[in-house]
Amino acid sequence: METAKERPRVSLRDRAGYLFDRTLARSTGTLMGWLVITCLAVVLPVSTLLVWTDPGSPRSLSGRLTAAWRTSAETLRLGAASGTPLRLVLSAVLGLVALLCVSTLVGVITTGLAERMAELSRGRSTVLEQDHVVVLGWSDQVTTVVSELVAAQAPHRPQAIVLLADRDKVEMERLLTARVPPAARGLIICRSGPAGDPEVLALVSPRTARTVVVLPSAEPTGDAEVLRILLALRAVLGAGAYGPPVLAAVRDDRYRAPARLAAGPRGTVLETDTVTARLIAQCVGRPGLSVVLGDLLDFAGDEFHLADGTAFHLDSFGATLLGHPNSCVVGLLTPEGRTLLNPPADTVVVPGSRLIVLARDDTSTRVESCRHLVDPSVIVSAPSEPDRPTRLLLLGWNRTAPLVVGQLRRTAPPGSVLDVITDSALPGPRQPEPEDTKRSGADVRFRSAALSRPETLLGLDVSPYDGLVVLGPDQGEGPDRPDDWTLVTLLALRLLEERTGHEVRLVTELVEDRNRPLASVNKGSDVIVSGKLTGLLMAQIAQNRHLAPVFDELFSPEGAGVCLRPAGRYVLQDAEATFATLVAAARDRGECAIGYIGHESRTDAATQGVRLNPPKDERRVWNAEDHLVVLATDPGTTPAPVDQADSTGAAASAAP
Q1: Residue 571 backbone class (left: φ over 0; alpha: ψ -120 to 50; beta: rest)
Q2: Contacts of 593 (CB under 8 A, 6+ apart)
Q3: What CA–CA distance (Å, rounded) separates 16 from 28?
Q4: Per-residue pLDDT reduced to its tens digit, 284-294
Q5: Tell me, what's the pLDDT at 154?
Q6: Which residue windows does the record flag with biased composition (Basic and acidic residues) (predicted)?
Q7: CA 581: distance to chain centroid?
Q8: Whole-model pTM?
């Protein structure tokens, strides 16, 4: 049994503090009583001391007590009336009532201001903007979309960007403002709450918006949430109402058709997994293509615009290619709204058509003939060699892998082989049906291995392959983040290159852009940050929804696509020629030249030698290490195997 000596001693100060805390916790009246007692215990003795130590104070006791009362009353704002005890009591009562009323009024004002500030900090006030951009939801693409929309703003006419997501407002503002310049931070307005709730959605005034962008979250229910937001938007705008254009993105193809119905006739719905698969498939064997696509999609340099085609009415499309000194024509927008990307050169530009051009801005699309800049003597007229069968290797498996396999299978030349190695610790992919394999150009073979073990990767024989694709696992399939597995795999493959002396040209996907500098790859490889490129694509379409068919065709396996081809296919090696000469040579092959990759600036980490939309009069010496960026329409082809003697590591490629 515990004795008194064994009990810990409590000091008098701690015991008094404990009793005081318990007393305060009882009620508000108790707290007010203690405040009165404390005030009186301090004010009365101090007032009395001030009077007794004042040489000019009255000599009589009653006079000094009256002076002490007046000092205490003035301090406590109880009034300073003197005289009979009744007058003193009435004065004290009146002062207490006045003090209570003033304190109550101050408390009400303070509480109201605090609640209003709390409401503002929660982001629940109504936005009264006009012609603004509304971004609904939160995803990996949100910072890219917002920063690109800010970059696309006209300096003389800035427009607000309003974001509504079910996250903390202060945290959203901190993340977004870190990506935009200080002068543009006032354009970003954040509101907090579920965007799928019509009452909350009405706070951002979608009726008066110029464009509404709906982003999918990384959660498994992200696509369902996008559908819910679109339905809530429909409820806010009203059935049949003429609302703003809507751009939404889903990850699963099963939600695309319902999302299109919910978005309405002015809606555009992207499937991000399909876009990512197309990007990966197009970059296989085309080192540097991801940088080209990123440059095309951001607003920092040149991007696609619509230009007036009046000067070329009833002329051929081929004539427009050499009709703009500072922009590259890539297609037509017909009066019926059809988009023709890289049409045949003899296509007639009918009245009412508009030109799709790659330009710095709308003001740099002036018309001027550049035919005098073409030097026919250096143009190569020999036909290109047909593509040879390729052999590709895919490591890893995730939800986009079936789409990547399908893209590579459809675009591969006959006789090609695609080997797929999946991690034995994860569920394996479904084997392709025999009919699918017969229709495809590549023979797809599956097997599993312990890819999570570095010794397995170091034991691979990658020398027979013309290209390699690395796909990380989906989020939520393990304790590590998807990029962790990808970075370890890239590091093992880099070590394998050093051991064997054979460089493997690979394409890999990363989830977070901050991990891109950590990717250990050679200069002949591409690292795709799928979320960033998808965000750039959404920002472009949000800025001009008429460009949606252009990008849809660019990233589709059929139709026109961005390609990298050796400059030696178009002009003589080591010959000096203008860019207009290469535009004419590409036109003769049914292609649109939009830029080049120069060998002398490949080491530039920012551009990697990519130069889009150079002036037509730019002259340079073209050699075997330079590559031309073209829009080509060669269905059913894929990059040819890379000659190991090519010191640049760039492959001659055909259109997807």
Answers
A1: beta
A2: 328, 570, 579, 582, 583, 585, 586, 587, 628, 629, 630
A3: 20
A4: 877 778 888 88
A5: 65
A6: 432-442
A7: 38
A8: 0.71
